[in-house]
């Protein structure tokens, strides 16, 4: 079997981790009896600086024919973030209808959490983040620029379809896991979108009597991610709240460099996109020390999505083994002094 994968390394450490991880994905695939046929796209900020756009006009359409997409990261210190992200990653998520962003938070053996008293195995939950609308709907405007009565409006849009899709997927996940769903909103302050969201959760929940639903306001949820992370199983949240909570999830499970992510198209036949939760990390770019494990684990989610779950499991296994081994190479973000390449080489040896 040969799968086609669009590779978009992007910017900063995105290019470093994708280049490093690619041979590991190939090795894993070969051992599992399939092949990956990559097409690499040089889209990103360097293209923007040379040609004035992050990707070609028909960029998103070029991606439609692939089985999956692997993205590094997007963002450049010399270009406003709303330009780079709205020129590349956000349109892919939206136009390929990747309505769901699935982000597991797992504290693995051998990894130190900044939370006192937590050890490997103590934290294991998954966030389902709405991924194409909500606070990222890109609806709004500015009037009277520069004047005293200037107004900027940034609206959040919640459609029944978009909300139901992510909520249902979260219930499905909870039913398969420990049967607990935490619904995160801000319905005390946002009486339209968030109250609507709560209603959808209640309605869809009727179909899942075996799932217990807990409601948390997002401010309290942020606190409880720190106070009692062990109590979460599946968390469902809007686009912005899910974004913020998953950086928190990444750090309580050890590092931004360990957190993977899947942007899933569950309706229609567009490809899903896999990427680490982290960004282009200009502060460590060019030093060869970016942690590649978030990208490795995103690759594992990509394999799952292709139906190659054994290959995904194998990758997660070697990552677990490596992290549990105190003498194995690890990057500085998780307390070591190894390079990106050292970590990947060690994983390849473990395969
Ligand atoms: P960031 O995730 O890039 O970095 C936050 C911190 O985590 C930094 O200190 C960084 O060094 C560290 N870090 C991140 N990934 C790491 C890794 N793999 N190994 C070790 N340390 C790691 O977030 P930021 O600094 O807010 O954003 C930088 C740029 O990336 C911005 O332009 C932002 O818009 C963009 N961004 C892009 C994506 C994406 O493409 N998916 C995600 C987040 C941020
Ligand atoms: C993420 C990132 C993006 C998001 C940014 C870069 C637009 O933070 O993937 O978590 O907010 O979705
Ligand atoms: Mn984010």
From TrEMBL:
Gene3D superfamilies: Isopropylmalate Dehydrogenase. Pfam families: Iso_dh (PF00180). Residues 4-347 form the Isopropylmalate dehydrogenase-like domain. GO terms for molecular function: magnesium ion binding; NAD binding; oxidoreductase activity, acting on the CH-OH group of donors, NAD or NADP as acceptor. Keywords: Manganese, Metal-binding, NAD, Oxidoreductase. Its cofactor is Mn(2+); Mg(2+). This is Tartrate dehydrogenase. It comes from Haloarcula mannanilytica. The lineage of its organism: Archaea, Methanobacteriati, Methanobacteriota, Stenosarchaea group, Halobacteria.
